[in-house]
Amino acid sequence: MSDNFYDEVLIDHNLHPQHLHDLPGATCSHAGMNPSCGDEITLHLEMRGGIIADGSFTGIGCAISQASADIMLDLIIGRTPEEARKLAALFRKMIGGEITPEELEILEEAGALQNIARMPARVKCATLGWRTLEHLLETAD
Q1: Distance (Å, rounded) from C-alpha 117 to C-alpha 94?
Q2: Rounded Cα–Cα distance for residues 68 and 65 (Å)
Q3: Distance between CA 115 and CA 50 in Å, rounded?
Q4: Is this structure's pTM higher than 0.70?
Q5: Do 120 and 67 touch, CB atoms closer than 8 A?
Q6: Following CA atoms 84, 19, 120, 133 in sequence, which dihedral angle do they give, to the nearest 10 degrees?
Q7: Where in the chain are the domains?
Q8: 140: pLDDT confidence band, cut at 50, 70 and 90?
Q9: What is the pLDDT of residue 96?
Q10: What is the pLDDT of residue 118?
Q11: Is 136 in contact with 130 (CB distance < 8 Å)?
Q12: pLDDT tens digits, residue range 105-132?
């Protein structure tokens, strides 16, 4: 896929985030922060019957952290916490530059952030939502 496609995905999720709002039905929430740039998000999940039934995030941050959190929620809503953990591990692997093409496909639109691996200063921005998810799932068990 072209770099333009990836840029469009990031721009769309930044300008029109579907999951940037409060979630009154949330059963668990966790705040995450990137102290190096000041990005802050709070991730809200509604767990029902062992599934992530809904999710949102609130907070402020750069385009990359906001788009990444929005893309992540698109990917994990409707899945089990274990599936979400596996996706987070794949995302970390991708950001580390160690993902296979088959694994990249599993990440769907999150693959748009693959080039962040070449921008060390932006890695924490891209992973903020994912790290917050992992901490939330650890404490929600």
Answers
A1: 8
A2: 5
A3: 33
A4: yes
A5: no
A6: -30
A7: 3-140
A8: confident
A9: 92
A10: 84
A11: no
A12: 999 999 989 988 888 888 999 999 999 9
Phi, psi of 119, rounded to the nearest 5 degrees: -125, 80
- Average pLDDT over all residues of the chain: 92
- Are 52 and 80 spatial neighbours (Cβ–Cβ below 8 Å)? yes
Specify the residue for token string 């990917």: 75
Query: What CATH code would you report for 3-140?
Result: 3.90.1010.10
Tokens of 31: 């705040």
Compute φ and ψ for 40, nearest 5 degrees.
-135, 130
Q: Which residues of 79-115 are buried (b: 16+ CB within 10 A; e: fewer)?
A: eebeebbebbebbbebbeeebeeeebebbebbbbbbe
19-39 pLDDT per residue, tens: 999 999 999 999 999 988 899
**Quick one: 21 exposed, middle or buried, by C-beta within 10 A (0-12, 13-18, 19+)?**
exposed
- For the chain, how many residues are written? 141
Please give the DSSP secondary-structure letter assigned to residue 20.
B
| The residue to which tokens 């668990």 are assigned | 28
